[in-house]
User: Which sequence fits this backbone?
């Protein structure tokens, strides 16, 4: 039996949901997802390209590379309809481009021109387990990037681009189109699209609770019974919300 995967349309992320997630750290999100049985959600190798990038939230728009094959990975392939150029032109506003680069570190998937075009198309960010090239130029575009460094050679030196908006593996994490990505100084975390609203609500409460706990720590209270909370501490916390 053949299973066909139809390219989904990107579903805009509701403004209130995006605002909620923007206030939740990736550290908190990984804890919440762990409690829900999801351990593998942090994209390995996707580190902020510069310090101080804001926490960003968006639907995943996926792109996939496979190992380079000499008859396919050529400069001429950049003019093909199935190319990184074609994928960028298919990206709607506010998505986060998530690229499966197989962790390859000696071929830059995107340079300054492609990143500049993504910025013009209002793409929120680029996230990959690989590397970029033209580092100074990429930084100059202002496009937020999470990646594993920089390399001078072009993508075709080590990779073949094959498609977009299909399930991928990025940084060892399965990413499907329309999943939600949250990225900050600690890296990028995936939230499966089916549980985004639930995770956001839990995350808001977790951040509120941890903020209260931090206040108690600053007052000099010891950690046992405070973090994690015992019944007495939970009662004091609930009373503080009234």
Assistant:
């Amino acid at each position: 039996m053949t299973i066909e995967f139809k390219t989904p349309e990107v579903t805009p992320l509701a403004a209130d949901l995006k605002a909620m997630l923007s206030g939740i750290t990736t550290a908190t999100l990984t804890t919440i997802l762990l409690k829900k049985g999801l351990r593998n959600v942090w994209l390995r190798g996707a580190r902020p390209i510069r310090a101080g990038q804001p926490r960003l939230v968006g639907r995943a728009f996926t792109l996939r590379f496979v190992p380079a094959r000499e008859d396919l990975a050529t400069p001429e392939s950049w003019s093909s309809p199935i190319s990184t150029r074609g994928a960028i032109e298919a990206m709607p506003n506010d998505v986060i481009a998530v690229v499966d680069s197989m962790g390859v570190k000696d071929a830059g998937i995107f340079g300054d021109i492609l990143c500049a075009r993504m910025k013009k198309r209002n793409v929120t960010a680029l996230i990959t387990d690989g590397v970029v090239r033209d580092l100074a130029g990429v930084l100059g575009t202002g496009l937020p990037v999470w990646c594993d460094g920089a390399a001078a050679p072009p993508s075709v030196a080590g990779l073949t681009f094959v498609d977009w908006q299909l399930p991928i593996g990025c940084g060892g994490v399965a990413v499907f189109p329309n999943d939600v990505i949250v990225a900050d100084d600690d890296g990028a975390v995936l939230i499966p699209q089916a549980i985004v609203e639930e995770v956001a609500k839990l995350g808001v409460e977790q951040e509120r609770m941890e903020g209260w706990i931090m206040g108690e720590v600053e007052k000099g209270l010891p950690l046992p019974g405070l973090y994690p909370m015992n019944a007495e501490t939970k009662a004091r916390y609930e009373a503080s919300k009234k």
In short: The chain has seven helices and ten strands. The radius of gyration is 20 Å.
